[in-house]
Design a protein that fits this description.
Blueprint (H helix, E strand, L loop, with lengths): L7 E4 L5 E2 L7 E4 L2 E2 L10 H9 L5 H5 L20 E4 L5 E5 L2 E5 L27 E3 L10 H10 L4 E5 L3 H7 L5 E4 L3 E2 L8 E5 L19 E5 L4 E4 L8 H9 L4 E5 L6 H4 L6 H10 L4 E5 L13 H12 L13 E3 L5
Parallel strand pairs: 7-8, 8-9, 9-10, 14-15, 15-16
Antiparallel strand pairs: 1-3, 2-11, 3-4, 5-6, 5-17, 6-7, 11-12, 12-13, 13-14
Amino acid sequence: MQQNKTLIRHLKNERLETIKPGYRGNKTIDGRFANGNELYNPDFSKVLRWQLSRNPQREQKKLDHYTPHVQQGKEFIHDNRDMLVWLGHSSFFLRLGGITFLTDPVLFDLPLLKRRVGLPCQPEELRNIDFLLLSHAHRDHLDKKSVQVIFQNNPQLKALAPLRVGDILRSIDPHLPYQEAGWFQKYDLVPDEVEVYFMPASHWHRRGLRDMNKVLWGSFVLKTREHTLYFAGDTGLAPHFEEIEQLLGPMDVCMMPVGAYKPSFLMQKSHLSPHEAVKAYNLLRGGTFIPMHYGTYDLSDEPPSEPVRLLEQIAASGMLQGLRMPAIGEPVLLQELI
């Protein structure tokens, strides 16, 4: 009886520049993307173990009502200066060289997951957005309603996304233009004022019942003449940080995820704890550290204020030189960070 052979392919967008010499593209094993060379299938017996076990910080979490402060206002939408504005979770409004980006837009409650904190303005008021940056397709990073609302109010919008995300985007709105990239590739839809690169992350994909790792995940680097910004998406601690720094670093600003890290037996391969995020930031030779992926949705076991307290402790120890924790809606002007 003939055995089935494992099908290994390497995929990339052949029309785009690949900046890593000799890189063949993202490895797929039987149609599923790998984390580098290894296929990572999250063990859902660990999810069951998590659901059936008692959180050792349960009482502490129950008494912790922390939410990030929200600075109300929409003036930043019409401000032409280079800036970033955190909108909660992993959503940022970025303006660079007169071009505006919105990362991982999740602006509403999600199914079975209520948003714990508001926005500085109504989602419909977010205008003048040129590009969506989509790091991966988990529902707390790629939300159908958020994308539809943003596109309705920004008809010029284009999406910069990972390989094989197209079916999802077409199901959200068939008229939304998009470009897919693999790791180490440079998008070519962006005007010359800003270079945008899709870079690695250590994560996974699942959005439906039968699509495990069928869509790629990653991070972004944005470069202008003055600044280099890194948006980590979702990631565990892995060797890709050193590689990103070697190719495109150092990073003036690092937008780093610091929440949803407990229990570690479930989260460690795909999320960063605050200590791990700081280690990654130092590997990137980062300037300003902007935390994200905390305080907006309840995804894990740690109390909501714990990432903030740990970052403050790490900064006080001297291991984190450039910590900046803006309120949701607070503009951070890049010219003031240099």
